[in-house]
Amino acid sequence: MNTISLDGLNEKAAMLERLDNKYILPASSFRPALMKFSEHFDVLEIEGKRAFTYATKYYDDPELRGYYDHHQGRRKRCKVRVREYVDAGFSFLEVKLKDKRKVTVKKRLKVMDPANPLSAEAVDFIEDQYRGIYAEAFGKSLHFVIAMNYERITLVAKDGGERMTIDTSLQFEANDVVRTVQPDMFIIETKSARGNGIADKILRSHHLHPTKSCSKYCIGMASTGSVSRRNRFLPALKRLRLTDAQIA
């Protein structure tokens, strides 16, 4: 594939507001589509690297409303995470929300003190973003609940602002339980303005379709036994073939 720089990606496809589709695919199914992707997408490359390590920590309230709001399919829901871009050496606090159009809205704040990611400034930032979308107070006390690591490859459409990510080597850790995803399984996320971009059309032409309820946070919480209800995420868990996961 042709390459694109980080600056080039940010100019073309920051995609902080977008419609997402997620796919869980084995390498054997995904590989035939790659040639077609190379015609329409460039791959992010930084200092000769094309796959980057992400280390993410998610935060939720004591009742795990972030998880259970998603499990119940509520529109008003909020995910809070601190994502470390390991190769680049910096971190962002990220707040993910859904607006009235069901568009994913992601807001970011650079973490200046990794030892205290939920500083007073960060808490105010979360409150402001939640109030800005839902016109009501967030008002929840957050604590760390799960960590995850994975490798990510990012593709950017040659024309327009569409973006696509390919995540592999996923590992979830919570409550001293570790679950890993088989290395030949990918979580692929397409991000476009209308949710039916070039990547979706290419995948559909190969009879590959989105996987419902495929939040990495929720999958991680369900697979590590951190929640009491997980029916909504069982199809995704079974497709991922997590090692030692008790999902029957």
From TrEMBL:
Residues annotated as domain VTC: 18-223
Pfam families, alphabetized: VTC
InterPro entries, sorted: VTC_domain, VTC_sf
CDD domains for this protein: PolyPPase_VTC_like
Protein name: Polyphosphate polymerase domain-containing protein
Species of provenance: Octadecabacter dasysiphoniae
Lineage, broadest ranks: Bacteria, Pseudomonadati, Pseudomonadota, Alphaproteobacteria, Rhodobacterales
